[in-house]
Amino acid sequence: TQSTWGMALAGVMSRRQAEDAIVQGRVMVDGQRVTKNVQVSQEADVHFNGAYVPPPGLPRLWGVNKPRKVLCTLQPKDDIPTLLSHIQQEEDKVQLKHGMGFGLPSHLILLGRLPIGAEGLVLLTNDGEFAHRLQNPDSRI
Predict the structure, then answer these.
(1) What is the 3-state secondary structure (H, E, C) of 56-122?
(2) Using CA atoms, how far apart are residues 87 and 103, in angstroms rounded to an integer?
(3) Which helix (H) or strand (E) covers residue 124, if one does?
(4) Which of 36, 63, 46, 34 is closest to 9 using CA atoms?
(5) Using one digit for the tens of pLDDT, what is the confidence trace for 38-97?
(6) Can you tell me the distance from the alpha carbon of 10 to that of 16, in angstroms, rounded to the nearest whole number?
């Protein structure tokens, strides 16, 4: 896989952020600093800012029921409940009850939005290319 794609699917960052990190020399593959996007095997030892990056998982899709009065964003807000805070609260409940969380990566992409007064299903993915295709009107999906 490409190193940017791998770091994005591993949930570390977006592909664009990975491109920037590589150009800035903040990514090491098998002990060598890389400054351009390179092919990386599943067995490669990848580090970002000195921290190990696990091999990428598969592209995934999650569904979340957004309640009313919750802002449909994955950005933290202090003054209003957001989808991000809702997911974190639900994960904490599951963690307490079952001893394990949802296993969501730190970098998620929200597919579509619902108004704050609406409730319903919203989709999340770790696959930026899929998100772009799904949300692009030219794809006619």
Answers:
(1) CCCCCEEEEEECCCCECCCCCCCCCCEHHHHHHHHHHHHHHHHCCCCCCCCCCEEECCCCCCCCEEE
(2) 11
(3) strand 120-125
(4) 46
(5) 888 778 888 888 888 877 777 889 999 999 999 999 988 989 999 999 999 998 898 888
(6) 14
- Contact by Cβ (8 Å): 123, 113: no
d(CA 40, CA 21): 16
Collapsing DSSP states into helix, strand and coil, what is residue 48? strand
pLDDT in tens, 119-130: 999 999 888 778
pTM over 0.90: no
